[in-house]
């Protein structure tokens, strides 16, 4: 049974970080201390509660973003776990879309690392208020203050320390709360479940006072009342300070910074407190906006349980053969066994069950309402990105946009039985993952999977084998190209055919003009209305777009082109949508025959971290791969080389880099743009 909740006590938060910074370990501790799990699962034992898919446990990484619920004091916290590898940025984007606030987890040794930069910028785009947790204070080389500096420098954020650590590395003992001016220590025997807050030891007093002063100064700059009291040397109460920090954090004027060691069970409870104190509830963020499906009017939905329903499906998972849809409810409520309206499908769907998710365990709810993030069983046709609403208040909440796939592999089932399963399995994967594309190679009959990177596709293949027992032969990864025209071209075609006893005739002329990179495909009609009636234009556009998707040179989508419908006509009694549609794509094919064309390939932003000694070799290797080095920045004893390199030349790079640097070099890679080969 669900208790009635106070929306202002809900915290929908994400935990985001660079791979290995310790997100999963932090989340595990949160679940342990909030009493939701009865033992601490360790990532390195393959037992973490959040990482429950077989593949995640084998690889010790987080692939899907699972939502999990916990209660801390009076706060209802819903955590969306987000993966740290770039190949899964779509998961991160999805999560950001439904979050109200986030915690950036950083490693006290590495500070801001490349992927945390990427995720941070994504969160900037979604205007998500954030706190930072500097984890791994127990590691050799841990430096809380340097990590804070790197947040300021690399993320252009305003980090404000609300704690300072007591000691570091193997002498890390606990933290000082700069608001209450107390020293917090954890009991190792109870795995940190017990902790005490008391007076600050003399040895740390000076440090605490210095940083308390810095905290007051920073908050004064953002809050006039605090400023007045600070300058007047008046007492500032803990509550006043908290309120000012809360307001500034929600305005995204500051990032409160805390620290600890998740592995050593230190620092988590104050982090939970801070989630309630400083991160927004659904009421503290702007109301979600949507568009009326018919009128296009912009509608706003406040987080009210009794308001009209507005919910977004942000993820769909196939679990044990059943479809589980994850939805964030922005306004209104849903009930188990009730109906919801999906305006994209223009029909109602039935909710057979509503589930509160605790990683891989679920609790049945009778209803869920504004602010909740729940799993729904029973939605048959709704997909990721769909809105659920009431039929009398239809709305489309803003859709999520996904990056285009850049890598493909050909797969072939090993046996006849596998062939039969394959299509089924792929269909399931595509429902879950909008960045996975599946197509058939006409000549060879092979199935082509396209995705965001090598790891993305590798995991799909390994899930096929492990979860669905489907074996496939896998080809080498190939780059997904785009085709463009490099000069204007024209084409004309005539379509004349008798279909089911009716004569069709159409004559269409089109012009294709190249556009600058990244423009996609645009369409306009200059054909006189008396020659092609307006009702046929939509069909012509659809026909043309379809033929551009199929490519011309090598079958890759044609992009960055303006299509102009120049002229056309039909004959009395032979006019039809079908005729114009087919004829338009024929005219485009004619134009492409006359056109000068080129291929575009994916170009990647690559960041390589190499020890000083291997720098020369690393740069020579990047050059040999056709890369262009853009900057080299020293960072403690390593160099960070930023370069742009064609993706086609990056296959096998991780192995090459590892062997050239005796395993010390690492790199990250992200899609930058498509450019000419
Ligand atoms: N020394 C130390 N190690 C830690 C700490 N927190 C996590 N680790 C270790 O760091 C490694 C990575 O931790 P995870 O929690 O899996 O990191 P993650 O950010 O979730 O990584 P992905 O799920 O792969 O993105 C594991 O081996 C953890 O045991 C810490 O506070 N101190």
TrEMBL record:
Gene3D superfamilies: 3.30.230.10, 3.30.70.240, Elongation Factor G (Translational Gtpase), domain 3, P-loop containing nucleotide triphosphate hydrolases, Translation factors
Subcellular location: Cytoplasm
BP GO annotations: ribosome disassembly
Entries under CDD domains matching the protein: EF-G (cd01886), EFG_III (cd16262), EFG_like_IV (cd01680), EFG_mtEFG_C (cd03713), EFG_mtEFG_II (cd04088)
Keywords: Cytoplasm, Elongation factor, GTP-binding, Nucleotide-binding, Protein biosynthesis
Keyword hit for Endoplasmic reticulum: no
Keyword Transmembrane helix: no
Top-level taxon in the UniProt lineage: Bacteria
Database matches in PROSITE patterns: G_TR_1, G_TR_2
GO molecular function, one term: GTP binding
Binding site for GTP: 17-24, 81-85, 135-138
InterPro entries, A to Z: EFG_II, EFG_III, EFG_III/V, EFG_V, EFG_V-like, EFTu-like_2, G_TR_CS, P-loop_NTPase
Domain Tr-type G: 8-283
Pfam families named in the record: EFG_C, EFG_III, EFG_IV, GTP_EFTU, GTP_EFTU_D2
GO CC list: cytoplasm
Role: Catalyzes the GTP-dependent ribosomal translocation step during translation elongation. During this step, the ribosome changes from the pre-translocational (PRE) to the post-translocational (POST) state as the newly formed A-site-bound peptidyl-tRNA and P-site-bound deacylated tRNA move to the P and E sites, respectively. Catalyzes the coordinated movement of the two tRNA molecules, the mRNA and conformational changes in the ribosome.
NCBIfam families, per the entry: EF-G, PRK12740.1-5, small_GTP
PANTHER family linked to this entry: RIBOSOME-RELEASING FACTOR 2, MITOCHONDRIAL (PTHR43261:SF1), TRANSLATION ELONGATION FACTOR G-RELATED (PTHR43261)
Family recorded in the similarity comment: Belongs to the TRAFAC class translation factor GTPase superfamily. Classic translation factor GTPase family. EF-G/EF-2 subfamily.
UniProt name for this protein: Elongation factor G
Annotated organism of origin: Desulfobacter latus
Encoding gene (name): fusA
């Amino acid at each position: 049974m669900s208790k009635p909740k106070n929306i202002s006590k809900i915290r929908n938060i994400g935990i985001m970080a660079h791979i290995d910074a310790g997100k999963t370990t932090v989340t595990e501790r949160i679940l342990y201390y909030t009493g939701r799990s009865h033992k601490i699962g360790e990532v390195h034992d393959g037992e973490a509660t959040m990482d429950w898919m077989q593949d995640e446990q084998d690889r010790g990484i987080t692939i899907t973003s699972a939502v999990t619920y916990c209660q801390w004091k009076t706060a209802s916290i819903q955590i969306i776990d987000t993966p740290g590898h770039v190949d899964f940025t779509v998961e991160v984007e999805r999560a950001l879309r439904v979050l109200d606030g986030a915690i950036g987890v950083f490693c006290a040794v590495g500070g801001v690392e490349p992927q945390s930069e990427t995720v941070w910028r994504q969160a900037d785009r979604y205007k998500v208020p954030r706190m930072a947790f500097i984890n791994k204070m127990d590691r050799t080389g841990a430096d809380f203050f340097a990590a804070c500096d790197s947040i300021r420098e690399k993320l252009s954020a305003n980090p404000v320390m609300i704690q300072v650590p007591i000691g570091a590395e193997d002498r890390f003992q606990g933290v000082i709360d700069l608001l209450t001016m107390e020293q917090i220590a954890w009991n190792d025997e109870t795995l940190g479940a017990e902790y005490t807050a008391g007076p600050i030891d003399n040895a740390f007093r000076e440090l605490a006072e210095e940083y308390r002063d810095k905290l007051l100064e920073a908050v004064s700059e953002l809050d006039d009342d605090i400023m007045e009291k600070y300058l007047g040397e008046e007492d500032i109460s803990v509550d006043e300070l908290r309120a000012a920090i809360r307001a500034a954090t929600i305005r995204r004027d500051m990032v409160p910074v805390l620290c600890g060691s998740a592995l050593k069970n230190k620092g988590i409870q104050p982090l939970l407190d801070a989630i309630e104190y400083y991160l927004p509830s659904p009421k503290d963020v702007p109301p979600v906006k949507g568009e009326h499906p018919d009128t296009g009017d912009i509608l706003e939905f406040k987080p009210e349980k009794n308001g009209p329903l507005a919910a977004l499906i942000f993820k769909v998972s196939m679990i044990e053969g059943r479809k589980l849809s994850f939805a964030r409810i922005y306004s209104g409520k849903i009930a188990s066994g009730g109906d919801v309206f999906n305006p994209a499908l223009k029909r109602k769907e039935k909710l057979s069950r509503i589930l509160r998710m605790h990683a891989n365990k679920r609790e049945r709810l009778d209803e869920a309402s504004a602010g909740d993030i729940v799993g729904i069983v029973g939605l048959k046709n709704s997909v990721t990105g769909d809105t659920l609403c009431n039929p009398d208040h239809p709305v489309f909440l803003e859709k999520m946009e996904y990056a285009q796939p850049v890598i493909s592999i050909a797969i072939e089932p090993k046996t006849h039985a596998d062939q039969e399963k394959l299509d089924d399995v792929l269909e399931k994967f595509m429902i879950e993952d909008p960045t996975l594309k599946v197509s058939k190679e006409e000549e060879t009959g092979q199935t082509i999977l396209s995705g965001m990177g090598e790891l993305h596709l590798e995991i799909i293949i390994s899930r096929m084998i492990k979860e669905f027992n489907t074996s496939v032969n896998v080809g080498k990864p190939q780059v997904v190209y785009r085709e463009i025209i490099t000069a204007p071209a024209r084409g004309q075609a005539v379509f004349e055919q008798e279909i089911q006893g009716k004569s069709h005739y159409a004559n269409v002329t089109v012009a294709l003009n190249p556009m600058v990179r990244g423009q996609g495909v645009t369409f306009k009609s200059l054909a006189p209305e008396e020659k092609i009636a307006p009702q046929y234009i939509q069909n012509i556009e659809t026909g043309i777009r379809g033929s551009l998707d199929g490519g011309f040179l090598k079958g890759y989508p044609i992009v960055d082109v303006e299509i102009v419908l120049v002229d056309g006509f039909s004959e009395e009694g032979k006019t039809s949508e079908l005729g114009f549609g087919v004829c338009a794509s024929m005219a485009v094919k004619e134009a492409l025959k006359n056109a000068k064309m080129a291929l575009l390939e994916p170009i990647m932003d690559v960041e390589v971290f190499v020890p000083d000694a291997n720098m020369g070799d690393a740069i020579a290797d990047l050059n040999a791969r056709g890369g262009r080095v853009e900057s080299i920045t020293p960072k403690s004893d390593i160099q960070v080389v930023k370069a742009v390199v064609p993706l086609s030349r990056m296959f096998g790079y991780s192995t090459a880099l590892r062997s050239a640097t005796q395993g010390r070099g690492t790199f990250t890679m992200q899609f930058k743009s498509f450019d000419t080969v």
